[in-house]
Amino acid sequence: MNSDKVLDAKGLACPMPIVRTKKAMTELDSGQVLEIHATDKGAKNDLAAWAKSGGHELLSDTEEDGVLRFWIKKG
Question: Catalytic annotation on 6?
Answer without folding.
Answer: no
